[in-house]
Amino acid sequence: MKKVLLNILLCFGALFSCFAQSEHRISLGVGLFSYEYINEWLDERADVDYYYPGSNDHGTYEYPDNDLKSLPNNLNLHYECTLGKHFGVGLCLNYDRFRMHNETEVITSVGEQTSPQGVVHTLWNSYNESGNIHRHIFSIMPEATVYWFKKNHVAMYSKLGAGVRWKINKKTVYTPQLKKTEDKDTHFCCQISPVCVEVGGHYWRAYVETGYGIQGIGQVGVKHTFRGTGKNTEE
H helices of the chain, where? Predict the structure, then answer.
């Protein structure tokens, strides 16, 4: 994690130094089917068992069934500083949100019983929980862009980003009794977009990116060049 944060600070330094260059761009995009969404979709269709050890060597098994209610889209805000005609560095802020209905069967061992024949049986108690899960995912990633060509009205490029993801998971159980829980975690995240195209004029362009990662397998949006002389394009 320290290495990731150091890379982010180095990227900030590069962004400040590149303000002396001739082109700066900001873009807003909508990503589709991030790997977070794909993983949740796959888990929803798999039998996932969780085991939590309890006291006296007993434990609890939980069998969750999540019904994903959210659309597979996320929001991305990018800044890019173009360094010459073929390379750019930037930063992306990403936000994703999942809403799920949760049904969980909870089975807890409550002791043991010995039969007259001397056979030991484990005693179990089970009940069902019903509620909702709201998951908020934030990420920040330095990005590097390589332009294969960049003309006055069209460009093709590839992009790579890596950074930190923060996830906040809020669960509300309504039955058998009301309770609320919240947990957080932090992980590495990335985006690889090998085939990207943008079209338009010098100041405004639409773009489409395909790849895999925290932003999704596809992304569409609009870019605005708010400071630039046009020298970073090929005739």
Answer: 2-17, 35-44
Two tokens, residue 108: 């807890």
Domains of the chain: 2-49+69-100+134-228 (2.40.160.20)
List phi, psi (to 5°) of 32. -125, 135
Q: How many residues does the chain have?
A: 235
For 55-153, list the strands marked E by DSSP. Answer: 59-68, 73-83, 87-114, 120-150
Distance CA 152, CA 87 (A): 16
- Give the number of other Cβ atoms within 10 Å of residue 160's Cβ: 17
Question: Which of 126, 54, 133, 94 minimizes the C-alpha distance to 219?
Answer: 94
b/e per residue 56-82 (b: at least 16 CB within 10 A) = eeeeeeeebebebeeebebebebbbbb
Q: What is the pLDDT of residues 103-160, one digit of tens each?
A: 888 888 877 777 777 777 778 888 888 999 999 999 999 999 999 998 889 999 999 9
Burial class (CB in 10 A: 0-12, 13-18, 19+), 83: middle
Task: Quote the pTM value.
Answer: 0.76
Contacts of 73 (CB under 8 A, 6+ apart): 30, 31, 32, 216
